[in-house]
Amino acid sequence: MLNVPSQSFPAPSSQQRVASGGRSKVPLKQGRSLMDWIRLTKSGKDLTGLKGRLIEVTEEELKKHTKKDDCWICIRGLVYNVSPYMEYHPGGEDELMKAAGSDGTDLFDQVHRWVNYESMLKECLVGRMAIKPAVPKDYGEEKKVLNGMLPKSQVTDTLAKEGPSSPSYDWFQTDSLVTIVIYTKQKDINLDSVIVDHQDDSFRAETIIKDYSYIIHLGLSHEIQEDLSVRVVENVGKIEIVLKKKENTSWKRLGHPLENHNSLIPKKDTGTEIVKPYTPVSDFLLSEVKEPVLVNNKYIYFLIKIYPAGLFTPELDHLHIGDFVSVSNPEGNFKISQFQELEDLFLLAAGTGFTPMVKILNYALTNIPSLRKVKLMFFNKAEDDIIWRSQLEKLAFKDKRFDVEYVLSAPTSEWNGKRGHISPALLSEFLKRSLDKSKVLICICGPTPFTEQGIRLLHDLNFSKDEIHSFTA
Known about the structure:
- The protein is an alpha/beta fold.
- The chain has helices at about 15-20, 35-40, 60, 95, 105-110, 115-120, 140-145, 150-160, 315, 355-365, 390-400, 425-430, 450-460, and strands at about 55, 65, 70-75, 80, 100-105, 125-130, 170-175, 175-185, 195-200, 200-210, 210-220, 225-235, 240-245, 255, 265, 280, 300, 345-350, 375-380, 400-410, 420, 440-445, 470.
- Its EC number is 1.6.2.2.
- Keywords: FAD, Flavoprotein, Heme, Iron, Metal-binding, NAD, Oxidoreductase.
């Protein structure tokens, strides 16, 4: 794990102390200023060479990228392709090449630790360093927390012969974030397999792996903010849990172990209460195909995707009439007043992030007389994943104000529609106002990476915070 060393500012060995006129700079070519670099990063050009993918980088792989036109550098556990930045670097190409193919954290801290490299190089991010945890002979509790490796005896005690491979975890940090990475060594893990709970200083993450639960349970060493995010890289079975620090200080350790920490136990022994948020929907989009109104409005409709390997949805799928589930009070911060005098409504949905759009469509098309245009851009993996496609197309035929566009990330060769992921090119074409100064609302919902990327792109396209509303999928 890479921690930021504690040192004075500027660092004793910094060129800002050594050189009387500040650190030395080299003349930059025309068109290579900081503003030129910012414009390049916002252009949508692939600066990593990986077409938007993030990968796990081994030490062996990092060492291969040591040329000016193929230069990777690691800073605090994150790997960047700095080749596109070479000509924009005020300190010159030679300074960057000193860290080519290696961990440049110490060198970076010596020269300009205060620079916000995460923002400067975010479009050059290749991925994270692959951690190679090692279990020392005198394996203490502190090492278990930092490396996240199960002692061998604990693995054999808890695993049946046909059980899953031993999972492990690790963690790293930046100035403002702590990321816990769980390596499940399974390829059928999805968000529905992960339960994360944080109360006071207690942090608990449970991952369902076949018939077992892998548990991380810690008393965190520092305070964190309430909101956290979870990302699953399904093809490698990796889970990333991102915590936001309350104070931008360097953590010496992640925390101390609590009950069942770093253990893999049979699922039936965990006794976990499962809580998942879902958005109530209308029973139909089109009024003329609605079923008769049910007596006393006693029914709530949910649209839920069943994940066969998931923790929660298979249980829902096997419920029978007369079975019970507990339902909480409604949560959320969307206000009907946001529709007041609205003229253009744009909806961006990915997968089951479509669910909050159902009631929005119903309400807006029925109750907003000022509305000129309603457009839905619906992102899915494959054509069969498109929810309520026939109803959406019937609604577009019935109400000329409404239009729907589908975008597929893994279509068949027969697909003639749009392809890819959320991007500046797709959004700039889609988000066209009916009038130059028409009042606009953009609603977005989907997996956390989709929503966060979408909001960043919308801000880049000069939409204000008041014109954007995000839902939690």
